[in-house]
Amino acid sequence: MKQISSEDYFQIVSDKARGLRKPESVTFELTYGCNLRCVHCYNPTHRALPHELTKQEVFSILDQIADLGVLHLHFTGGEPLVRPDAIEIYTHAKRLGLVLHLITNATRVTPAVAEALQGLDFDDIAVSIYGASKIVYERVTGIPGSYEQFRRGLDCLAARKLPVIVRLPVMVENAHEVLEARALVEGMGIKFQYCLDIVAKNNGDPAPLAHRLDPAGKVRVDQVFLEASHRQAPEPVCAANGPFIDCSCGRNRFAVTPYGEMNLCVAFPTPRYNLRKGTVREGWEVLKQTVDHTTPNERYECPTCEVRPQCRQGRNDAWLQTGDASACLPHYKEWATLEMRTYARPQPGQAD
Q1: b vs e for 282-298, b when ≥16 Cβ sit within 10 Å of the residue's Cβ?
Q2: What are phi and psi of 107, to 5 degrees?
Q3: What is the pLDDT of residues 171-225, one digit of tens each?
Q4: CB contact at 8 A, 164 and 157
């Protein structure tokens, strides 16, 4: 009998679920509360407001998620570990048979927390790093002492040999430390990743965009990592030849906010279906209809755009920044154009 890796198996399940329009992955924002004040964050408040979901409400939603056949559950925030009942919530989810994932800044991780996480058998724990040095890290987080907390937390996770991935959101403040951050993380035997895209707050506030690199800066960072990994060019990312909303949102994935709102994605916060008044199953039908009935207008130029294979703009980016999911954002078009020129990619339909 042929054996496959767990990653390949989960990909097969994901592809199958997408084709059947069955949800297999959920991102659950447990709280907007956070102990950091990162300059680039999409979080609209950083505070845990009184109308966030109670533990029992979270349990009820988790029960419904499992009943719907969801496989993967990603806990995020805010900082999910600021909730005093976080471990209880993770334990409940594990009992339901869900594959658990955690997104955290690690500053709240103690030896006891790391031990509890180990006992829950998380599939992966994604830790954010904001700089290799204390001065850069805290320039991003805005909190003195947070770098030491991060390092202690990461050490605790590493000591337990937990499946940690450390991710660097690259921005103006830390772009000069990308290789140092990678060396720090890989020196601990931990996998390192980076992300170039900084998005607007999920209430539409564009303030975080002031901290993103310009397109030329993004291409330079990619080149640094491509050279280090002996690769020639980033992979094409978009074909724009499928449905208008062609990502996993509303096809096999959705998100839940701390207020019990069910959305297409954390970064695509609509239609805000109220799970305090309806069920997850009912909400999923609303999300599918949202995707299927959202159509482009005359501003939609992606199918005929010559740089579309390199374009990283999502419908959510246009929607958050302009209120129109069909809009072409100049930043992304310039970024894609620079990549096309830098790596001399042939145009669609053009011979190599």
Answers
A1: ebbeebeebbeebeeee
A2: -70, -20
A3: 999 999 999 999 999 999 999 999 999 999 999 999 999 999 999 999 999 999 8
A4: yes
**Residue 274 has which token pair?**
């109220």
Q: What is the strand order of the sheet 25-29 is part of?
A: 191-195, 164-169, 124-128, 99-104, 72-76, 25-29, 253-256, 261-263, 273-274
User: What are the CA-CA distances from residue 42 to residues 217, 222, 269 (Å)?
Assistant: 21, 23, 11
pTM, to two decimals: 0.90
* Beta strands at 261-263 and 273-274: parallel, antiparallel or unpaired: antiparallel
Task: Determine contact, residues 275/260, Cβ cutoff 8 Å.
Answer: yes
Q: From CA 297, how far away is CA 67, in angstroms rounded?
A: 37
Please name the residue that has the structure tokens 């709240």: 108
Condensed to tens digits (0 to 9), the pLDDT of residues 40-93 reads: 999 988 999 999 999 999 999 999 999 999 999 999 999 999 999 999 999 999
For residue 244, what are the β-bridge partners? Answer: none
CATH code: domain 19-295 is 3.20.20.70
**Domain ranges for the chain:** 19-295
Hey, which residues does 192 pair with through a beta bridge? Answer: 166
Following CA atoms 262, 95, 104, 23 in sequence, which dihedral angle do they give, to the nearest 10 degrees?
Answer: -30
HSE at residue 181, side-chain half, CA atoms within 13 A, is: 27
CA 127, 132, 137, 139: dihedral to nearest 10 degrees?
-150
How far apart (Å, rounded) are the C-alpha atoms in residues 30 and 237? 30
Give yes or no for a contact between 50 and 78, defined as CB atoms under 8 angstroms apart: no
